[in-house]
Amino acid sequence: MSSEHDAKLVRGFTLVELVIVVLIIGILTGVAAPKFVGSLKWAQANAAALRLKADLNLARQTAISRSATQSVQFTVNSAVYTLPGIADPDHPAATYSVDLSKETYRATVTAASFGAGAILQFDRYGQAVNGGSVTILAGGITKTISIDAASGAASIL
User: Fold this and answer.
1) Residues 6+ positions from 134 with CB-CB distance below 8 Å
2) Using CA atoms, how far apart are residues 3 and 110, in angstroms rounded to an integer?
3) Which of 6, 60, 72, 142 could connect to 120 by a Cys-Cys bridge, CB 3.0–4.6 Å?
């Protein structure tokens, strides 16, 4: 009968085995967490740069479609830029304005240089009146968006 009793024993984990598993998980978490945070910061900086590039393309296309000058106004050391004359898609009575400090981006415009100021203008042909660049900072990562004067095309450096 004792062999029948032994067959019904429930097997489990020892305390030592559980401690080893918890230690391994802790070590893996300690190694992976900084990489995850770095990836998150890179993604925020990249998303902010892509958003800005898309909005510059919107301003350029608006200038072409309206056959009129269209500007993008930057405030250095701020997270906000505006596209005067373009309605905000969510609030049609308001001017199109983007706040890069929001949770998705958490970015700031650290520099904007287009000739003599921080206002980029596209002429009615979509060419930039003055080429230049905008630099943004998100999570310690810097991204620069360059605007070619001849074509008006924006590119992320």
Assistant:
1) 52, 74, 109, 111, 112, 120, 144, 145, 147
2) 77
3) 72
- Element (DSSP H or E) covering residue 134: strand 132-138
Span 60-83, pLDDT tens digits: 999 999 999 999 999 989 999 999
Domain borders along the chain are 12-156
What number of other Cβ atoms are within 10 A of residue 43's Cβ?
A: 15
Q: Give 52's contacts (C-beta < 8 A, 6+ positions apart).
A: 81, 98, 100, 134, 136, 145, 154
Q: What is the pLDDT of residues 138-157, one digit of tens each?
A: 989 999 999 999 999 999 98
Question: Which pTM value belongs to this model?
Answer: 0.79
CATH topology classification for 12-156? minor pseudopilin epsh fold (3.55.40)
